[in-house]
Specification:
170 residues; mainly alpha
Length: 170
């Protein structure tokens, strides 16, 4: 396993690099399509778009390649950057009836059970959540959470989600 330095996608310089890379996927639609067809972080690591992101972020220090591959693959499914907190976005009621969270409490609890040493499962689950949110999420918040998927992240998410979730989701 590679050494991970503290990389924060909410840091202004890192955030700018990440958003610049994500916006470049609109220009190079073939890269976005290639990333979206990937079924695992390993597949993502074989794409040029992933290596452009890795190269852009390398100036901030050592990176964990596998965690970054999960970030790149999931972000390729995001259509709109919507600033805010990702767990709060999951808890926000949907427009259908306005009474249920976009991501149900059950699905949220299942997500929190994913171990940090299971990037394939995290990858698939996060893509499904992005789609549940209408592909409209806070990119730096999501990237940070995926890259630092651990007990602290899960704890922070639980507090944010349940603080904002409709009462029937709790």
């Amino acid at each position: 396993m590679e050494q991970k330095m503290y990389l924060s996608f909410t840091n202004p310089e890192t955030k700018d690099e990440l958003l610049r890379w994500w916006k470049s996927l609109d220009i190079s639609r073939g890269d976005r399509a290639e990333l979206r067809r990937c079924h695992s972080p390993l597949n993502v690591a074989f794409t040029p778009a992933y290596h452009r992101l890795r190269g852009a972020l390398a100036k901030f220090g050592p990176l964990n390649a596998e965690d970054l591959a999960v970030v790149a693959g999931v972000l390729s499914h995001v259509k709109t950057y919507n600033p805010g907190s990702f767990p709060v976005q999951m808890a926000t009621p949907g427009s259908v009836d306005g009474k249920k969270a976009k991501v149900s409490g059950l699905r949220f609890r299942r997500l929190l059970k994913i171990d940090s040493d299971d990037p394939d499962r995290l990858y698939g689950s996060m893509i499904r959540i992005v789609h549940l949110l209408g592909d409209d999420v806070d990119i730096p918040s999501l990237a940070n959470s995926i890259y630092w998927w651990n007990e602290r992240t899960k704890n922070d998410w639980a507090f944010a989600y349940y603080e904002h979730a409709p009462k029937d989701e709790q």
